[in-house]
Every structure is written in structure tokens, then in C-alpha cells.
Amino acid sequence: MKKAGLVVLISGFGSNLQAILDAVDAGTLNAEVRAVISNRVDAYGLERARLAGIPACVKSRSKGQTRENYDAELAELVQGYKPDLILLAGWMRILTMAFIGRFPDRIVNLHPALPGTFPGVNAIERAYQAYRQGEINHTGVMVHLVPDEGVDLGPVLGQQVVEIRPEDSLEDLEKRIHACEHVLFVKTIQQLIKRMEDKDAKSAAVGVR
Question: How far is 45 from 104, CA to CA, in rounded Å?
């Protein structure tokens, strides 16, 4: 069966990228990572890609370059790999419609908070502080489609609650959040690929008739 083509966008350490690479190697994901692209030259995730024999690209924003122009160039780079899905695995830039509009219903983002809570950066730290102030008793992780420029919005594909324990340090909570991310992201990508396979099978069956 045809493997789904993935392009992964990262900005940093790449632990979620590693979870994806491991799942592909294990056969858990019927997919191939065709490229890993970072907006930062020092992102360790690029080294993870190189170690796995996957094209690792840096696409930095030029001084004075508009967001829209950068995103249009990024879209051209990504399109060259003909991806079925574009995965934002720790991508720390807000994409504009110059990019999003090129890949409708194919951009998937992972965010370390539940829908409608703590959008944007430092979500885990903000959740931890809110817990300490008695405002919440849990946080979580979500995976969602990116249909527009809304920050950590869009149709939710998967979510998982993560408890916050009285004895937790911020580091304890971060470890549990990241462990949850790795599992939920892979599981959600699995589900998306299965849907694509089912759709292709139905189309093929109609064609045979």
C-alpha cells in the first residue's frame, strides 16, 4: 500500500519529530518522512533528520522579508516534496495564508494545551502557574488542523488530558506533557493516514465499477 508522504516543520529540539521517525521505522505509521524543514539553523531536530537519512532543510527569514513572502517561499519548498500531510512539530512561527492556502486540510499542528486554553508560546509554564494559583486542576495536549491564521485554533483531531499533581515541579509537568505529545501525535497521524487510505480505496472501487 502506498505510503503517505510527510513533511515536518520544526524550530527546536525535535522530540516529536523523533517520535514520528520511530513510528515510521517500527511500521506503526504507513508513511515516509520526505523532508524536515526548520526556520532555525541551530535546531537539533535537523540532526535527527540527518541521522535518519532524511533531507534536512533550513529556511530562514531574510532581514526585511515580509511574513507573506517568506511563507510563499516556504510553500514552494514544501510543495517540492509533494506531501500528503504537513506536520507542525514544534514550529514556532505563525503561518500566514500565503502558506496555509496552498495546503488546505493538510496542515496538522501539535499544541501542549487543551482546546481553547493557553494558545501561543509557553503554554506549559502558563498552565503550571494557573494551577498554582488555583485556577485549573489539569491541562493537556491537542492536535488540530490549521485552516487559517488563528493561533492554536482549528478543528480538533485529538486531545488528551494531563493531570497536574500537587508535588509537581514545572519540569515534572513538562516531562508528562511531552510523553503525552509523542503518543497523541503519532496516534492522530495514524488516524489521518487511515482515513486517506479508506478514501483512496473507495475511489478505486468506484473506478472499477
Answer: 25
Backbone angles phi, psi at 124, to 5 degrees: -70, -45
Nearest to 137 by CA among 156, 161, 169: 161
Mean pLDDT of 170-186: 98
Reply yes or no on whether 144 is catalytic. Answer: no
Q: Does CATH place domain 4-208 in 3.40.50.170?
A: yes
- Cell readout for 169 is 515541579
Q: Which three cell numbers stand for residue 27?
A: 511500521
Mean pLDDT computed over 150-176? 97
Confidence tier at 38 by pLDDT (50, 70, 90):
very high
Q: What is the mean pLDDT of the chain?
A: 96
The predicted-structure confidence for 45-74, as pLDDT tens digits, reads as follows 999 999 999 999 999 999 999 999 999 999
36 vs 146: CA distance, rounded Å: 18
- For the chain, the farthest-separated pair of C-alpha atoms sits apart, in whole angstroms, at 63
- Consecutive H or E run containing 38: strand 31-38
- Set 111, 138, 178, 182: catalytic member: 111
